[in-house]
Predict the 3D structure of the following.
Amino acid sequence: MKRRLSVILVAFAAMFAAASCGKIKNDVIYQAIATIKQGVTGECYVEVDDSTSLIPQGTITLTAPEVRAMIAYTVVEETTKMPGYKHTYKANFLQVNKVFSKWPEESLGSEELDAAAYGSDKVGLYFDGYFPPTMIEDGYLNVHFAYEATPGSEHFIHLVTDVDGDPYKVELRHDKNGDTQSTLTYESIIAFPLEFLPDTEGQTVKLTLVWNSLASGKKESVQLDYKSRTDWPVWPDDSDEE
C-alpha cells in the first residue's frame, strides 16, 4: 500500500553529543536513533546499539511490539546489565520522536517494472557526518534522505529488495506521484526492517544500497555491513501500517 511520506524534523541542538562518543557522562545530552522495545515483564527499554541499553526514568509509550525513534537523553547512572548488553544505564529522556517505518517490497524483476511500480525519481542520501546517518542498526536500514517537492504534495518512498536477483542488493526508490514543480528540498528519515532478507547465519555480509542520486543525476551505490537479527518480535497483522 502506498503511504504518504512522513517528514521527521531533526530538531536536536548542536550541543548534543553522539551516543557512541567516548565515556558516558551524566552532564551531557546525548542523541541517538534507537529501538524502543518491550521487556519480558512488559516494561519499555531502549536499545541504543548492540552493546548499550537504557532504562527510562519515566514513561515511554509503545504502540507496537517495538518502535524506531530519534531520542535525546541524559544518563542518571549505570545499573545492572540487561541480558545481552555490555552496558545498561538509567536515563532521562528529553525528546522521543518516532521514526516512520515501512516494510520493503520485492523487485518485480526488471528496471522497467520496478520504475513503473515504485518510481525512479531522484533522492539524496546522507551518510557519516550527518545525524542520523544512513546506516544499518538493529536489523533496520535507517535512511536519512532529501527530495525535491512542491509544498503540500504527496511523494512515496520504497525500498525494493532482491534487485537483479541478488538477495543482498536493495534499491531506494522515490515516486514523485505526478509532482512536476518540485520547488523546495525537504529532508526526512525512514526505517526499513530487514527481517525477511536471507539469514546470514551469524556472518556479516555486504548489503548493496542503490539510489538515483539527486546530486549526480545518475544511479549510485554504497555497501553497508549487514548481519541478520535473530530476535524480531511477533508483529500484528496490520504491521505494515503506520
DSSP finds one helix and 16 strands in the chain. Helices lie at 111-118. The first strand starts at residue 17 and ends at 18.
